[in-house]
User: Fold this.
Amino acid sequence: MIRLSHGTGILKGTIKLPSSKSICNRMLILKKLYESDLELDNLSNANDSVLLKKILDTDTRDIDVQDAGTAFRFLVAYAASGEGEYIIRGTDRLMERPISDLVDALRLFGADITYLEKEGQAPLRIVGKKLKASTSLIDLTNVKSSQFISALLLIAPRIQGEFNLKVNTKMSSYSYVLLTLSCLRRMGFSVHVKGMYISVNKKQKFDGEYFLIEPDWSSFYYWFSMAHLSKECELFFPGLRLDNMQKERKHLFEVGNTRMSFEEKDNGMLITKKKQGEAECPDVMQFSQYPDSAMTFGMLLPAIGCTQHQLKGLESLKYKECDRELALVEHLNKVGVSLEKSGKIWELNAENYKLNAETIFPTYDDHRMAMCVAPLALKQPIHIENEEVVKKSYPHFWDDMKSVGFTVKKI
Assistant:
C-alpha cells in the first residue's frame, strides 16, 4: 500500500507517457507473421507487451499469458493459423473471461481448437493448420468483442480464399478494430471497408522497415484528470498529437476548464492552467468506444464539482481485468457518490460528494482502478492498495507522479 499526497497542487514538468500497448501488441504480431525485419521503436514496457514479445521471440508452445487479455486473444488466432500444437492458459480471472465467440469464428475457417476444462473458457489446446474460408462472406455480426475481430483481422492475410468479414460496427470499442486496420495498412496490406464489410488483400507492399510506436492516449487521461484538479499546471507530453493513430482524444474537449489550454508544440502537447477556472461538464458521456477511460472520468467529474450525469457504453466493464462496473461503484461510494444502472444508462449522482483525508482505495488487481483514483491526491492524501498493479500498462506511473511533486510513501 502507498500513501499519495501533493504539497502545493502545482504541477510542472515533462511526462513521457508509455507507448501504446494497443499498437505495440498489434505490431508485434504483424512483425512476427509478415515482416521479421521490421524495426519497432519505442516498444511498450507494459507487462502485457513485454510478455507477448517474449512469447513470440521464444516460439514457446506451452503458453501462459498470465493476465494479458489482449495477448491471449491475439495468440489464439496466431496459434490457430500456425503450425504445431499449442496450449494456452492464464490467470484464474483471465480463464473466466469468455473466449467462445473467437473460437467459434476461427472454427468457421477450419481451426482445430479444444477446450481443456470448461466449455467456452481457457485453457485451450490448439493445433495450428492452414485456415481456409469456406464461403466469400463470413458473418460475424454476433461477435461483441472488438479484440476478437482484431485477432481475426491480424491473421486474415494467412487465410486461404477471398472473403469479406461482416461485423457489427456498433460494437463496444469498434474504434480498436479501425486501429487494427491502420496497423495492417502500415504493414503494406490493402484494406477495404464498406459499411459492415471488411476485406484484407493478401498481397503485401511493405514500404519501410521502421515504425515508431506513439504514446498511449489512455494513459494520458490520468494526467488530464490531474490537470483539472491542480491549482496550476504546465505539463508537456512528447509525441502526443491530435493526429496520432489512436482516437481516444474524442473526450479531450468534452470536459473543460475555462482556464486550461492545450497547445501542440515541439512534436508534443502542452497543457497549461495558470489559475482556477470554472468546470464545464457534459450531461451525458458516451464510453462505448473508449471504455478504459470511463473510470477516470467517473472519479474526475464529482471531484471538479459536477453533480448529475449520465454515463453510457459501460456494458463491457464487467469483463475486464476485474468487474470494473462494480469496482467503480465501490470507489465512488467511498466519496459519497452513487452510480446506478437504469437500462443502458448509468446515473451518477455526486450531490453528497466528499473526499476524506486518508481514504483507502483497493485496486482489485486492476491497473486502471489504481490509476483512476491517483489524481484525487491533489485534493487530499489518499491510500492505494497493491500499487504494483500499474506494471500491466504504465510501470513508471508512480515515478512520473514523483517528478511533478507528488509524495509517494510506502506503507
Notes: The chain has a mean pLDDT of 94. Residues 218 and 293 are 6 Å apart (CA to CA). The chain is about 30% helix and 25% strand.
